[in-house]
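Sample pair:
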Amino acid sequence: MATFNVQIEKLDANNYSNWAADIKYLLLDKDCWSIVTGTEEIPVLDPDKGITHRDLKEYRLRASTAISTIYLNISPEFRKIIEGTEDARVAWDSLKKFFEPDNRSRHMQLFSEFLACKILPGENISLFAAKLLRLQEKLKGINHPIHEDYMCFQLLRYLPSRYDSIVQSILRWSDDKFKFNEIQLELVAEESRLQVRASDNNEEHIEAHSISSSRKSCRKSLVCFHCNRSGHFRNKCPELQKKVPSVSSGFDRIPSTSQDCGRSLPDTSPPNPSSNNQRRRRRTKIQNTNPSFHGNMSYLIQACTSEVSKASDTWVFDTAASHHFCKDKSIFNEYVPISDEKMTVAVEGVTIPIEGKGIVNLRFGHRILKFGEVMHSSKLNRNLISGPRLDKKGVVFEGGKGELRVKENGQLLFKAFLRDGLYEVNPNILNRKRVGFSANSVQKLDARLWHSRLAHWFSYHSEYREK
């Protein structure tokens, strides 16, 4: 008879129950278990019954296999328990008495294990029922069998909450149907149904996720006609939405970026501005009539059209204006005329034309800052520095006690001081254009030309010559 070479865990102080089950089936494979249990006795020679010396030799061989299998699968420290015996049945009984003595302590231990037996997370119903049946066999082996009703109660007691409905239904069964095997079959069927439902929910989730992913991929194929980027249409373009300023009170400290203070602060698109809570809010709007000008621009200008006229060198630092503004054309370093654009200030319906835009260089101490996209309108009474434009470049604003400090990377760029409710700045103007008398061509300098230019002192020199 063919046998399998199977290795099992050796017997130690903590695994007798599992070891006994493993060694039992190992001996069954070797056709030796009946010798261990005593159901097969040593044969007696009887020619009339057909029992020969060959049968006796075969029995002794199987008996030797049984005792050797038991002995070799015991840890060395416990082999002393069965040393000196060659009877497999005696060795088996000795091990059982040593590891599972038949006393009240053992009975209490088995009963406690039965009451504490619970279904583990992820364990199926069939395995849990098998554990209960094994404990029942152990209690039955010590002449303390568990009634079937208590077996059923223990099977239903610790089930997960998803089995609550089926448990309530089983508890209403009649006594004839309320059996351990019937309950096990009903719970296994319910377990299969719950697994199918969980699988369906998982498939629906995967399908929903795939649909969402396909929508995202389709969205990526969209191209904006404004910024030429994918993922959105022109009406959802973030760059166009940034051009609509929002007004908030107070100063926000913006983290500064690494940028040289003397470098140019070019402006591309107006950011979302925040307003000064110490100033009245007035909203202005650029009305575009030039097709080449993209979008509308909005402005918040404080007292730029007030009746009190200020010098051109005074600039107002406004944290709510979306553009820099200058009224003096002569201080522009670069200038581009603009037509068909007007700025409508929401104060008594005043309309101010935008005449051009360009670059202005302002000196603050030893630093020269270059302001780009500065709008020009000679109708304004104040120049304007846009806070959001600087905010876009990582500049930090710190205010308090009538003073506003504008910093970049921790270094002070300039200060603005509170006067008449506005923060005013007095920079040094660079590259101011001055009127001279030089000409590209030489003209005939007659007396009439000099008289028209220098009549106020020409007569004085004429009188001096006459003397």
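Confidence is low (pLDDT under 50) at residues 244-300, 434-442, 457-467.
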